[in-house]
């Protein structure tokens, strides 16, 4: 009996590690590919040739062409740069901003905490995408404004998480010991608080990459994100949705690209969460 | 001889809206002479820890004053307060929890030294010396808190407390979380330190175990419900308790 239990546990642990390596590699590959996307395209993604417009996939154009005769595969590859980098930038912004606010609130307490937390409640109370639509609408379209809009609605989650984690760490005995060691507030926060709270925050932001990619695509789809002719997956889908019945490959290619990247980042986030959980790792 | 620590009318009142105020520490006063070891005993909830937290300024006092080595420290803040911690250090009740789980014991012990501007190399040498002084091999500096036993961790905690050569060492139930044999070792270590350092090290020893206090302390205070109810040489207090609570405390053990 005992043998069996031990072996089961070992298999589970190994599979977490295997998944971490697998999805980590895929995510890195995706980011590297999107970084060098310009050099990876088989054709010029912006070259229009109306004579071959709306061609179904064939050997020359693996994913077909769009209504201006541009090669879809090249556009999807180039679009990865805009989509993936703006997503990563967005997630980096909200993680940093939310964590900073949360740590300040948790550490400081008192009036500042109350004020900042009520502001974050305000943002949380709005339906997210509707509020982002309103912000993007007021600021005008464009990828930059879409990122600002989504950052404005997404930081409170991180602020709450960082705040609760900070409050928990603040009361520990080792925090008192560090204070008695004569460490200044800045040192206490950067050397002791942040390293101890960054785990759960990182997991949350990994899981958020997928969500944010979808929301950015949604904003672009609604015409509030990237502007043509820039290749961006969401706007590529939106521009061509009228062709869905006649030439589905034009809409589906960026859609599938979104699907695959969101899945990779979500699975990576899940795996990191499993890996960070001490119970799944053992000592 | 001027006392190293002088506490006057120290009071802590916890007030919460909608609830009655709770006086955790009620106007206590005592002093601790250089080289002396003063024990504070009392049941849990008697205000011992609150009192120590006020003395170490981890908690603000409601009223009263704390004089460390003649210097008023009751309301110090920031840089001034950090300077005070060079004279006063504490050993905590839970050894493992008193070290940052993500840093090595060496980092924890050397933190105060780095903060007073010692170089990385000097700190490392000093940390190894301190570990040796507390009976641990030098390579413990590279271990993490969860990789050592409670007793070893408490030795490291004492090494950390001694790093800045404090004049006052506060032990808040420093032996309570350890089993009896390890408890004895830690007490022996503290005794050794006392005999080595003589008048330059005074100890405030918070404990709920009256027999430990009897073995270890020169003088003892008995706290009950936030007040000091009895004070004296341990043998006298235990042999001829004047206060009703002290009587009960002693009866409960014997």
Please summarize what this structure is:
The complex is a heterodimer of chains A (283) and B (254). Chain A has 283 residues and is mainly α.
Structure report:
The complex is a heterodimer of chains A (283) and B (254). Chain A has 283 residues and is mostly helical. Helices cover 76% and strands 0% of the residues of chain A. Chain A has one domain (2-281): Orthogonal Bundle (MetI-like fold). Chain A is built from 11 helices and no strands. In chain A, 41% of the residues are buried. The model of chain A has no long low-confidence stretch (mean pLDDT 82). Chain B has 2 domains: 5-87 and 166-253, P-loop containing nucleotide triphosphate hydrolases (Rossmann fold); 103-165. Chain B has 9 helices and 10 strands. In chain B, the strands form 2 sheets. A 6-stranded mixed beta sheet of chain B has the order 6-7-8-3-9-10, with helices on both faces. A 4-stranded antiparallel beta sheet of chain B has the order 2-1-4-5, with helices on one face. In chain B, a hairpin with a 2-residue loop joins β9 and β10. The longest helix of chain B has 18 residues, at 180-197. The N and C termini of chain B lie far apart (37 Å). The interface between A and B is medium-sized, with 18 and 30 residues.
